[in-house]
Amino acid sequence: MTMLDLQEKFNTFVHNRWLVFVCAMWVQSCAGIGYLFGSISPVIKSTMGYNQRQVALLGVAKDLGDSIGFIAGSLCEVLPIWGLMLIGVVQNFVGYGVVWLVVTKKLPSLPLWVLCVCIFVGTNGETYFNTGALVSCVQNFPKNRGPIVGILKGFAGLSGAILTQIYTMINAPDASALVFMVAVGPSMVVIALMFIVRPVGGHKQNRPSDNSSFFFTFSLCLVLAAYLLGVLLLEDLLDLGQALIAFLTVVLIVIILLPVLIPIVLVFFSGPVAAPAPSEEEAFLLESRKQNGEEEVILSEVEDEKPEEVDTLPASERHKRIAHLQAKLFQAAADGAVRVKKRRPRRGEDFTLRQALVKADFWLIFVSLVLASGSGLTIIDNMGQMCESLGYDDTSIFVSMISIWNFLGRVGGGYISESIVSNYGFPRPVSMAIFQVLMAVGLLYYALAWPAAIYIVSILTGLGYGAHWAIVPAAASELFGLKSFGALYNFLTLSSSIGTLLFNEVIASGIYDHYADLQAGLKQQQRSLVAMAAGLVLGEDESLSCSGSICYSFTCAILAGLCLIAVVLSLILVHRTKSVYANLYGRSQG
User: Which H or E run includes 295?
Assistant: First the structure.
């Protein structure tokens, strides 16, 4: 191989869409900064002398930073991806860097509101990482949106466990070192990769081997999830030496790096791929645009004049008919018979966020997400207390388990939804309804206090919640286009925060406190009787806590009902979007 050939291969390598995807996976594997708040909050609490209410305010700032991505979504339309990610790096480094300086006493103690702002700014940086990675890869893999979004969101969900394992290997004597790692680690990784993660015209790089590449990636995801779960269980059940922890962490890093073999093999060990000819559908659209001398003109009259049966025709025939009708309308416009005007976008075309906000389909997705995703996040946030109420001493295993199932839900949800769309032509929201039914089953199982309820609810809730964040972004890009995908995606992420704010504060906490008060009253009566008999004086009671499955049974029953309402909304969306998916994937649904 000559030097010229090597340079050409290297140029092809850095413009390969699979390299972009792999680097986006690495970005996401350290982008879930918010998942580490539970690990760094004790350090802040002990150092600053905060009470639990003040720590809760820091948690609210973290949640807001994780959810508010309007700016990132808007800037991705005007800035290059590297510029977007650089803003995220600055926010992450400055926000958590200041927190580290305060915790280590290198800066004087700052007011609580200042630390809230710092944590908000630092956590908000991850919205820039998420937006840059998702927008780039969805544009590079327009025909594989489900698996792409599922894998990327899955790695974001696992990032907390990955960073925690790396911190465990470092074994820093000072607990504040974790805050330093949160400030510096993701920033270094993103700076190293931000010029690689970008759109590279990936829709022109389709290969017959793509299915094999996705299979390899999915297999590695399953191996990674199983390995992480095994490592967590080992570290929890056994007292492992530092050398063994370091070895296990190195193996973890190797598994994360393995996907880079895909672009290496494709570029350096496979033959060149010929540029694909435009599809018949693209050819008709291109020809009609050339004839009209305008690439973005869409005639409202075409929709008025075309027969209804046109939407049920195969893609090639449908576009022939539309192109012919549009040509006739242009001729009529030239003769002065009709006046040509642009129309608003229709489902499947490019919407701005403002245009999407007036569409019923968008609000069906959003409200369904609020109900189902908000229910799932409420269970995830309360998993520790649910385990304690059932008498489990160590709750970390269940918290880790639901994180693993969350990851598998994201990866599996993307794969299953893509299979439903590609192989059967059903709208993608069908898969959303399926996972919402699974969540309802798991929640109802816990509400009825059946055997092993905590295992069932953690598995099904983790799978269902995770699947939503693989399915919904892909569906939004199909129904409302890729032009403003960043803004649309970041608006939809608000749904989880709204849902958990309503359901956690109003439903779960209220019901828990109600039963805790009842149990405390009974205990107080019993203690009073004993004290009266013994002639003792009672002191102040301890903080309220609830025991038994009753603490969350009624909450789970309510959340199961909300998930079923979400199923109905998803099925309405399925009915409304059948023709869109028939057009996109060339199948007609009767």
Answer: none
